[in-house]
Design a protein that fits this description.
The protein has 158 residues and is an all-alpha fold. It has one domain: Up-down Bundle (Ferritin). It contains 6 helices and no strands. Helix 2 packs antiparallel against helix 3.
Length: 158
């Protein structure tokens, strides 16, 4: 028996949602790793503020990774779990050696733009198949991320 047998969603209809969740999972995994690097390597002006903020952000990303993987499982998919698989499909690119605040913030804001775009598309797909749980999850992510973009741009403005 599968979860789908009990939650009134049809497997053939949710396949596109699963594929989209897999994409978002891969992108969040790369984003998480990038945030760890920013946290470890940040230097200069803003160190104390950004070191703590990056810690908060990568913990949030780790939580979202788990939520996405569990949602894939609930929809009878199998979440990818190898970093090599994530790297093959991720639109977020790995970065290395970033220690300056402006470079880290540029990367994060660019990543948010990508994630927000993916989440909006996923929200639409999920809505079309009646998957209100994924819709709610994406709505929550969008609410948090739009606020974070606003806060980061306010911090970053010169």
């Amino acid at each position: 028996m599968k979860t789908l047998d009990y939650i009134s969603l049809k497997g053939e209809k949710v396949n596109k949602v699963i594929v989209s969740l897999q994409q978002l999972l891969a992108d969040f995994q790369i984003y998480y790793t990038n945030l760890r690097g920013f946290h470890w390597n940040i230097k200069g002006h803003g160190f104390f503020v950004l070191h703590s903020k990056f810690d908060e952000m990568y913990n949030d990303a780790a939580e979202k990774v788990d939520e996405l993987a569990e949602r894939i499982l609930m929809l009878s998919g199998t979440p990818a779990n190898k970093f090599s698989d994530y790297l093959k499909v991720a639109q977020v690119k790995e970065v290395d050696g970033i220690s300056k605040a402006d470079e880290a913030l540029d990367n994060i804001l660019g990543t948010y733009a990508l994630l927000i775009s993916e989440e909006r598309e996923l929200l639409t797909l999920a809505s079309e198949v009646g998957d209100e749980v994924t819709v709610a999850l994406m709505s929550d992510y969008l609410k948090e991320q739009e606020k974070m973009v606003w806060m980061l741009t306010a911090y970053y403005s010169k």
